[in-house]
């Protein structure tokens, strides 16, 4: 992690941030637990911009140039939500910010959008946002190096904060007893993103479970993927999983979207969680596992290995190495809790992350003031 800025610029007035979005868990945990220096505007309701949307923030109203021209804020901070925006529309957003001389911060979460099968649109979006931002933030050294290589711009590297609420981390962990030689390995197929390829991994996962005494392969998936009436039904994957379950090789669990509590309890029940991504950049799922003491097996694509201690296997758009996955599984079950962080460690990390953002916002405001903004 690069050295964090300190809040040192313009006085102590509360900074008002237009955060896109505001209600996302990552953004909520950028704030200090006793936040007093920053006020992030609530997400306007897409159906009525005069109301807060709370968690229903998409499509983000704050990316409307008309909203930018009319709203009162000090700093504009883009995180997510522009997936469907054209580059021309993003140019309009940047122009509206420039016209009002509002500092623009962009946190580069995705260098390859996990929802887009082709990369061209996201690359074009980044070609607008990365050069235009007054400051760039990203989550890993690897991502920062890629940004420097592609655009010649330096990005601050600030770690992903906790995902599970701090007061729940120890409580959830305490519900589950650590494995004693009978590991439970989880593969979550949920609502399949373009960047996921769980079917590539299944044969190796099945072989590993069969060859490991007491091991259980648990596969969870959403009804929309694994039931015939689902909007995204994947017949081949569903048949393969149900056949394996009928043969007693898989603990298959098909369900609707989990609540946060259900998801965190599920992750804590696993010894190992396998990420089936063939492309992507960073992972909130990985961070939730670190909160809950679950070892992560992550692909070599993206920058997952830079987020924290994981066991890596070879997997990207062009290649999957089954032998490397088998080795990674062996290493993972031998290292329970790899990369885990305690609530105390996460609390200290969050304080540092929050201090960085306060300092960055104030520094940009002061720079704008000195330049006559």
Automatic annotation (TrEMBL):
SUPFAM superfamilies, alphabetized: UDP-Glycosyltransferase/glycogen phosphorylase
Superkingdom of origin: Bacteria
Record protein name field: Glycosyltransferase
Native organism: Nocardioides islandensis
Classification of source organism: Bacteria, Bacillati, Actinomycetota, Actinomycetes, Propionibacteriales
